[in-house]
Amino acid sequence: MQFGIFTVGDVTADPTTGRTPTEHERIKNTVAIALKAEEVGLDVFATGEHHNPPFVPSSPTTLLGHIAARTENLILSTSTTLITTNDPVKIAEDYATLQHLADGRVDLMMGRGNTGPVYPWFGQDIRQGIPLAIENYALLHKLWREDVVDWEGKFRSALQGFTSTPRPLDGVPPFVWHGSIRSPEIAEQAAYYGDGFFANHIFWPKQHTEKMVRLYRQRYAHYGHGTEEQAIVGLGGQVFLRKNSQDAVREFRPYFDNAPVYGHGPSLEEFSSQTPLTVGSPQEVIERTLSFRDYVGDYQRQLFLVDHAGLPLKTVLEQLDLLGEEVVPVLRKEFANLRPAGVPETAPLHPALVKKEA
């Protein structure tokens, strides 16, 4: 099973000191976090894509290309690639280039994001979000698999005899996840193509995530890609760890209370009971994460959000030490012991994809 972290790249004031990092500091710190993830033995680092303050990751492939040059084993991914407002041609080119630079250690997650104004900034209509996601990905899928493409759709100019360059590494496109919090149409899209489905399991109760994953599994089997159990599922999650739970709660509370997304709303205790947010000891994080399997089944990738809400770099790196040393080794063993034969252990990596195509 793959374990890793994802970032949304927010530039947020530390509520305990009042200090806000510069954009330069936040970008450099994100690189340091990725390098630490590899150092402690995590599998995946993923970045979001945003084009508005207070976020900095507007160019995921630039960031991931730099990290690729400084790592050897880390899978480089996105927690959102905006399939609705990016040109599919540019996505095809940029991520194929990254795939070459990283020697295949790349996959990506298609998403619509959660920032409404981004649509008109890039000449699109938010009311067309789902149709844009469907049509743009259909084109991207074609661009990566056909050397010469003729295309006509609703949302971009037609293509005639077009070749996207560079071609994917070894002729095999990066593995694609389709990420969603709330949209069954995206689960259907992932199932149709036999791609992965990533339920960003950070805001909604488990009953909602269970329904979304079940729909994806059923439709994956319907389209003939394998059994429901063989569908490729990933989950998001949020954690804050200290050696004992009392210290974790005390230290994280001011960050939670002032977080850009959920601050000044439900209490930390209410939010933790209603969503997968886990603030506590390593053992509590292990037990809570293992419980996800009870309602989504055996899955292949677990990503944690650990660097948001103004947490200083030192604290984030300490979180990664605890994840790498005390949490993930136990989760690997326990999930492996529970996984039935015939169920994929991980999302497909480049060598496996190349072998499958051979």
UniProtKB/TrEMBL annotation:
Residues 1-294 form the Luciferase-like domain. Pfam families: Bac_luciferase. GO terms for molecular function: monooxygenase activity; oxidoreductase activity, acting on paired donors, with incorporation or reduction of molecular oxygen. GO terms for cellular component: cytosol. Gene3D superfamilies: Luciferase-like domain. InterPro entries: Bact_Lucif_Oxidored, LLM_FMN-dep_put, Luciferase-like_dom, Luciferase-like_sf. It comes from the Bacteria. Keywords: Monooxygenase, Oxidoreductase. PANTHER family: BLR5498 PROTEIN, LUCIFERASE-LIKE MONOOXYGENASE. This is Oxidoreductase.
